[in-house]
Specification:
The protein is of the alpha+beta class. It is 47% helix and 15% strand. The strands form seven sheets. The protein has a nine-stranded mixed β-sheet, sandwiched between helices. The protein has a nine-stranded antiparallel β-sheet with strand order 17-16-28-27-26-25-24-23-22, with helices on both faces. α4 packs across α5, α10 runs parallel beside α35 and α33 packs antiparallel against α39. Keywords: ATP-binding, Endoplasmic reticulum, Magnesium, Membrane, Metal-binding, Nucleotide-binding, Translocase, Transmembrane, Transmembrane helix. One of its GO terms (cellular component) is plasma membrane. It is found in: Endomembrane system; Endoplasmic reticulum membrane; Membrane. It is a multi-pass membrane protein.
Length: 1210
């Protein structure tokens, strides 16, 4: 059926499959191609780790990767060797079987949830073309194969990665919502493969005879390379705009048909699904060191017992009782070594790892349900995506923050603009636009008219040292009578956009016309140079249908204005372009066509006699517009253009529908879109100008890039630069707008090269970048915009608290240096007394010299402080500010050490104009070379890399999608939540876990030492004075629950105190909670308590005829009370839950031993515990011994803890 060339042999087919992917219809008759399609994965997904048969061996194998599990399996097996057997072999299996079973149960529950999700997704239905039935039939997702044709309708989820071949939209466009993929709810445009010959008619898969060659599956959501080769040999390039991604939702078209190119686990969505993040916490790394020390301690104790047993055996030459004389003392000592390893096995805390996982889940539960971290406006609470690094929140030393959307709201409002070197004040309209946009956000309904109480002129703007219009932009919609009353006399209306000089001189019509041209193109660029989707609020997921709109306008877009008007009557043109609406109001959406003008009313009426009636038909549609933008900047600019009556009303793949004031709706031919990328830092659209018919490139982007690409009059560029600097000083975000007029032959030449780049499968991105750069040269600067982005609430207070907590805050932003510094002052990162160290270098050598000078300057400040003795180091007053180019040099090997030396001595660092890669490199540099705990926080896709590199990554669910959240360890909705998360929850989590780990080590060492001391009285024979069941279950069951409650609920300090005194956060880091020597202090305390616990009962029962188990009964009971009450002393919080758990622990122990004593006869050979506990508990000596032992053991601990608490609260 397919006439394209195919591989000639199966071997070639497989080799071809490894290099790239060939896709043809699944019903092809070519056997080799059928075999090739069978090599691709089906659409069935399986995220489970286990199957019914593989669960047991695979799960056990995974658990064997944990050293403690291997250790205890070894001990259980060793206990089956008769010569080293310590007690019944089956009893030795209890600890490891219990731990492995609990872990396996947890794993199988998690895997079963994944299984149910997989079954649900695989069972979803979609319509797939059947060649036998010649129609689309319902099939489950799991049965979809590469090469299948899938038919989708509006609001259906895409089952696999498909190449878009047909759309019911006549322009071949469809829109998808990618919320299931990246969290973004704005619509994204996709279009049918260019030059596909089947548009405009019903698509039939049988007529598809093309072959698709594309790249092999990868996880890059923004890239797709390939080409489609038709049966006539013509190749058409494919790109990401042609690909419909799995899990996305069709939102605007009635019918979409695509051919599956990637299915199942080869889709981009599945290849990006890496599951929950796993990081090892700093505390967990320290824990491994402590476990190794426990192993060393165990070895020493076992070796001591082995040597003691050998000496003891050697001391009996003629024994009065039976002794094994056949085994040499050395060999007997060797056997005892392994016997003691089995006896003292509880020294290694096997249950500690499971307990830590349980405690972290409990901590995450309380963090997740903290109401102070809940955002009521967004109905959003904190998300804990990494389950095992909660304690690292209490150890942060460096915080790296993005600026836009993290420190600020990322809700942009168009504030000021400069056009043709003239700045236009916009403060009143900025306030009104802010209200306008907030109403759109809250109600999703666009208001038609906003009342204004302001007069035609703006007198509230501060003067700048540059040429500036005396008239605010919002006067363009003021009524003539209003302006006449303000000015005191009637004068010809020349509009708001001419400068003051032009308004009062009719001899400068050429200058006024040029300014008018700039103004027109400036606002036209704001309206169309974007990827904004225009939708309806009543049907928010259906894009406004612009097809009928385009067809209703019978006039040519280039006939609205005659050449004579364009060339000879600037005042007429200007008044026609920006006419005035009703008194006291700013009409945002509906162009007013019935307002006459002194100089051009007759021509206006002649040029479009039926436009008013047609506009009335479309008025409802215009009033009901909602803009869905990929970034808040785009939304702010489109809203600003609409406020000034340049309204974007609709968009298709080939056309834009725009309202121009005084003219009405015009269909603008859209030739190309060159999207924004981080390399170019700009985007462009190529259109045919609606007024001149010329091919025009409109470009908007960062001023640092656009200003270098423009060729304008030097005085205009100079004035614009002054305005840019002024905007930056006021903390505004700036963008430059430029254009370029192309001749037809220039455009044709560029188009050929660009089409070649689009059709290329190799190096497509590089070729497209070169093509865009060739076009975006010799631009004409139109003007610049200033957009305000307010700080989030409580940002200054949060940063001040973090700095008081000893956390160094760095700001890594792509904004201008002046803007970043202004925001830093606003958020109190910089104070008036701080000294700025600016590093903006033109070369690497200059950068090296500057760093050395700055280091000397900082060291000089430190020396001065040391001499004067004024307390804190002067280095805290230095702030380093660097641009992107200097930062790039600083990250190189030659200058890295100087940069580290300088930055660590500064109070804060601000990196401006930094790229996403530079952000991650800075975080990695500080983390690795300074050995500190780092935290990165951001809200956008450009922050993902640094969030993933940092020890703790925090995403903010803001205005730029959910990429940062999906890549983070924790997700919050506001920057202010960091203070509670770190200062309170971070402090608690670290303190709880550190103390719980020490407690586990303490109680294990303490109990094991009781067995060790007994060896001195039994010839180091490996005998024990307690029942083997009690020995195994003592640490595993009876004393395991209280530490869990302690680790989840303990609060060493109240939350209010931690928030009021952030210094306590740093004190916890520098305290002796979990430092190496505290391990040995804990061990020594356990040794002391074990000595008391063993020898007090020993001397109490000395000279009596009690048996071994009777002697061990008060020792075990005293050990239980000591261990439980030790935790009570250490606890700062005691609730009814603590008391219930403590009572249950005691009840479980005494209940077990009493049952064992009452009914067990042969359950613990060779000893018989029958009646022993009952007899002991009937004597008063038992209780006196327990009380005396407990008090003597805990008295030093109580005195030490009570003294520390007094010092702390003093």
């Amino acid at each position: 059926m397919n006439s394209t060339e195919q591989p000639s042999c199966p071997h070639a087919t497989k080799e071809h499959h490894r290099m790239k992917r060939t896709v043809v219809p699944s019903f092809t008759e070519n056997e080799e191609l059928k075999e090739l399609l069978q090599l691709y994965k089906s659409n069935k997904i399986r995220t489970t780790k286990y199957s019914f048969l593989s669960f047991l061996p695979k799960n056990v194998f995974e658990q064997l990767h944990r050293f403690a599990n291997v250790y205890f399996i070894f001990l259980a097996a060793l206990n089956f060797v008769p010569v080293v057997e310590a007690f019944q072999p089956e009893i030795a299996l209890v600890p490891i079987v219990l731990v492995l079973s609990l872990t396996a149960l947890k794993d199988i529950c998690e895997d079963y949830r994944r299984f149910k999700t997989d079954r649900l997704i695989n069972g979803l239905l979609c319509r797939v073309y059947s060649s036998t039935q010649q129609s689309y039939v319902d099939q489950c997702w799991k049965n979809v194969q590469v090469g299948d044709f899938v038919h989708l309708s509006c609001n259906e989820i895409i089952p696999a990665d498909m190449l878009l071949l047909y759309s019911s939209d006549p322009h071949g466009v469809c829109y998808i919502e990618t919320a299931n993929l990246d969290g973004e709810t704005n619509l994204k445009q996709r279009q049918v493969v260019s030059d596909f010959p089947l548009q405009g008619e019903e698509f039939t898969p049988e007529s598809f005879h093309s072959r698709i060659e594309c790249e092999n599956p990868n996880n890059d959501l923004s890239r797709f390379r390939g080409y489609m080769e038709h049966s006539n040999g013509v190749r058409v390039g494919l790109h990401s705009g042609n690909l419909l991604l799995r899990s996305c939702t069709i939102r605007n078209t009635e019918t979409v048909v695509g051919i599956v190119v990637y299915a199942g686990h080869e889709t981009k969505a599945m290849m990006n699904n890496s599951g929950p993040r796993y990081k090892r916490s700093k505390l967990e790394k320290h824990l491994n060191t402590d476990i190794l020390w426990c192993v060393v301690l165990l070895f020493v104790m076992c070796l001591t017992a082995a040597i003691g047993h050998g000496l003891w055996m050697n001391s009996f030459k003629e024994s009065i009782f039976q002794v094994d004389t056949e085994t040499p003392p050395a060999l007997a000592g060797f056997y005892i070594f392994w016997t003691m390893v089995i006896v003292l096995q509880v020294l290694i805390p096997i249950s500690l790892y499971v307990s830590i996982e349980i405690v972290k889940l409990g901590q995450i539960y309380f963090i997740h349900n903290d109401l102070s971290l809940y955002n009521k406006q967004l109905d959003s609470r904190i998300q804990c995506r990494a389950l095992n690094i909660t304690e690292d929140l209490g150890q942060i030393q460096y915080l790296f923050s993005d600026k836009t959307g993290t420190l600020t709201e990322n809700k942009m409002v168009f504030c000021r603009c400069s056009i043709f070197g003239v700045e236009y004040p916009h403060e009143e309209n900025a306030r009104r636009l802010e209200v306008y946009e907030s109403e759109n956000t809250e109600t999703a309904v666009c208001s038609v008219t906003l009342k204004s109480g302001y007069s035609g002129k703006s007198l509230s703007c501060r003067s700048l040292s540059c040429n500036r219009s005396s008239v605010s932009l919002h006067t363009l919609t003021a009524e003539p009578m209003e302006e006449d009353q303000l000015s005191g006399h009637v004068q010809p209306r020349t509009g708001a956009f001419c400068s003051r000089m032009v308004r009062f001189s009719h001899t400068h019509q050429t200058s006024c016309f040029m300014e008018l041209t700039y103004i027109t193109d400036f606002f036209l660029a704001l309206a169309i140079c974007n990827s904004v989707v225009v939708s309806s609020p009543n049907q928010p997921r259906h894009v406004v249908k612009v097809k009928l709109m385009f067809q209703r306008f019978s006039f040519s877009p280039f006939s609205a204005l005659s050449p004579s008007q364009i060339k000879g009557s600037p005042h007429s043109l200007k008044s026609r372009l920006f006419i005035r609406g009703k008194r006291g109001s700013l009409t945002l959406s509906t162009p007013v066509s019935n307002t006459t003008d002194v100089s051009g009313s007759s021509q206006e009426n002649d040029s479009k006699p039926d436009l008013s009636a047609r506009e009335e038909e479309e008025q409802d549609i215009t009033d009901e517009l909602v803009y869905e933008a990929e970034s808040p900047d785009e939304a702010a600019l489109v809203h600003a253009a609409r406020a000034y009556r340049c309204t974007l009303r609709g968009r298709s793949a080939e056309s834009l529908l725009v309202d121009l004031p005084g003219i009405g709706s015009l269909a603008i031919q859209l030739l190309h879109i060159l999207p924004f990328d981080s390399n170019r830092k700009r985007m462009s659209v190529v259109v045919r100008h609606p007024l001149t018919g010329q091919v025009v490139v409109f470009t908007k982007g960062a001023d640092s890039v656009i200003m270098d690409l423009t060729e304008v009059y030097s005085h205009i560029k100079e004035k614009t630069q002054k305005h840019l600097d002024a905007y930056a000083r006021e903390g505004l975000r700036t963008l430059c707008i430029a254009k370029k007029v192309l001749k037809e032959d220039e455009y044709d030449l560029w188009l050929k090269a660009h089409m070649l780049a689009e059709s290329s499968i190799e190096n497509r991105e590089e070729l497209l970048l070169e093509s865009a750069q060739r076009l975006e040269t010799n631009l004409t600067l139109l003007g610049t915009t200033g957009i305000v982005d307010r700080l989030q609430e409580e940002v200054p207070e949060t940063i001040a608290a973090l700095q008081r907590a000893g956390i160094k805050v760095w700001v890594l932003t792509g904004d201008k240096q002046e803007t970043a510094i202004n925001i830093a002052y606003a958020c109190k990162l910089l104070c008036a007394s701080d000294k700025l160290l600016t590093a903006n270098c033109g070369s690497k050598d200059a950068c090296a010299a500057l760093f050395e000078d700055l280091i000397l300057e900082v060291q000089g400040g430190e020396s001065l402080t040391a001499l004067t003795g004024n307390g804190e180091s002067m280095s805290s007053s230095f702030i380093l500010v660097t641009d992107g180019r200097t930062l790039g040099w600083a990250l190189e090997d030659e200058l890295r050490s100087n940069f580290l030396e300088l930055s660590r001595r500064c109070k804060a660092v601000i990196c401006c104009r930094s790229t996403p890669l530079q952000k991650s490199q800075v975080v990695q540099l500080i983390r690795d070379h300074l050995g500190v705990m780092t935290l990165a926080v951001g809200d956008g896709a450009n922050d993902v890399s640094m969030i993933q590199v940092a020890d703790v990554g925090i995403g903010i669910s803001g205005q730029e999608g959910m990429q940062a959240v999906m890549s983070s360890d924790f997700a919050i909705s506001r920057f202010k939540h960091l203070s509670k998360l770190l200062l309170v929850h971070g402090h608690w989590c670290y303190s709880r876990l550190a103390n719980m780990i020490q407690y586990f080590i303490y109680k294990n060492v303490m109990y094991v030492n009781l067995l060790f001391w007994y060896q001195f009285f039994c010839g180091f024979s490996g005998s024990v004075m307690t029942n083997s069941w009690v020995l195994i279950l003592f640490n595993l069951i009876f004393t395991s629950a209280p530490p869990l409650i302690y680790g989840i609920l303990n609060q060493d300090l109240p939350a209010d105190t931690l928030m009021e005194l952030p210094e306590l956060y740093q004190d916890a880091q520098t305290s002796k909670t979990f430092v190496p020597y505290m391990f040995w202090i804990t061990v020594l305390d356990a040794f002391y308590q074990s000595l008391v616990c063993f020898f007090v009962p020993y001397f109490a029962y000395a000279g009596s005829d009690v048996g071994v188990l009777s002697f061990g009964s008060p020792i075990n009971a005293s050990a239980l009370f000591i261990i439980l009450l030790h935790q009570v002393i250490e606890s700062n919080t005691l609730t009814w839950i603590h008391m219930v758990v403590l009572v249950l622990s005691c009840t479980s122990y005494f209940g077990f031993v009493l049952l064992l004593s009452g009914f067990c006869v042969t359950c613990s050979p060779p000893v018989n515990p029958l009646g022993i506990e009952l007899l002991q508990m009937s004597h008063s000596l038992f209780y006196i011994t327990c009380v005396l032992t407990t008090v003597a053991a805990l008295l030093p601990r109580y005195a030490h803890t009570h003294t520390l608490q007094k010092l702390m609260y003093r």
